[in-house]
Amino acid sequence: MTTRGYLTIAENSDRGNYLEMAYCLGMSIKLTQSKVNGISVAVTPGTKIPDHYRKVFDEILELPWEDDAQGEKFKVHNKWKYIHISPYEETVFLDTDMLFFRDVSEWWDLMTTQDMWFSTNPLTYKGTPFVGNYYRKLFEANDLPDTYNAFAYFKRTQMTYEVFHMVELITHNWEKFEYDYLSEMRPKWFSMDVAFALALKLTGHTEEATNNYYKIPSFIHMKSQGQGWNIRAGKSLSEDWIKYVPVNFTPDLECKIGGYRILEPLHYHLKNFLTPQIISYYEAKFNEKNS
Fold it and tell me: Where are the alpha helices (DSSP H) in 173-290?
């Protein structure tokens, strides 16, 4: 029997308690997924894990080798290790600041037809296509595939090892790759979305790792500039999207943003979205199911 499961990396920083986010993500997967509901988390060696967190994860893994994200503001530099640490034969790797609200198990039967499958069709909270041109000008300027690593699938094959090895090289030699291959526009800091997209381009595996016919896997991306909100010329929106739309989260784990019920995986992005109250709602349902 092929094993399938979700995997995320949780490295705490000044920007948030990512282990707590992973814990809540794990509960949301356990409570919504009918066929594939296993999830593991990778942490920095020495991370203290509360006992009640352990009930949620299949495995709690320590990131091997040295911590490539040490001292970095954005803790994304260890993502090239996914293929080396995953306990599953087929893996979906996720950003930690996400929640699931419906069963997406049927996606796996499609994703398994490819060695690798990146999301290319994120949505707004209204369910309309995410407007990515504000964030993705660099991708267009450098002819990079419009891929998102917040939700991506892979098997262990020669192709996927090639892609992850290239991501490793890009991560460890960012300035060289940035200078050599991002000639038109360059990011202000290291971007893992750019690293994976560039790796697909350089290895020639873009078509094998994307699929625009099916609009899955998808997720709701809550970055403010992509919601299609009208703003005055010369103005920009704060990434604190809660300033603009109300959130209603019930004890039954129903989430509405701006009056729209959330069904697809939610990449809430804003770290203070996950309140102690929301966590308590998940714990109550998780404990009830497992009592």
Answer: 174-181, 192-203, 206-209, 276-289
Nearest to 269 by CA among 96, 112, 22: 96
* Angle (deg, nearest 10), helices 158-172 and 192-203: 130
| CATH number assigned to the domain comprising residue 166 | 3.90.550
Torsion over CA: 4, 5, 9, 15 (sign): positive
pTM for this entry: 0.93
Give the range of the structural domain holding residue 243, as residue numbers without chain letter.
4-289
User: Of 158, 161, 170, nearest to 196 (Cα)?
Assistant: 170
Q: Which regions of 110-201 does DSSP assign to beta strands (E)?
A: 116-119, 148-155
Dist CA 118 CA 148 (whole Å): 6
The residues that bridge with 249 in the sheet, in sequence order, are 255
Asked if 41 and 8 count as a contact pair (C-beta separation under 8 A), the reply is: yes
Which residue, 129, 281, 115, is CA-closest to 211? 115
Q: What is the pLDDT of residues 232-267, one digit of tens each?
A: 555 678 889 999 999 999 999 999 999 999 999 999
3 state SS of 116? strand
Tell me which residue of 88, 73, 71 sits closest to 16, measured CA to CA. 73
Kindly report, residue by residue over 138-186, the tens digit of the pLDDT. 888 899 999 999 999 999 999 999 999 999 999 999 888 888 888 767 7
Query: Which DSSP letter does residue 52 get?
Result: G
Instruction: Give, as one character, the DSSP assignment of residue 99.
Output: E
Tally of structural domains, the chain: 1
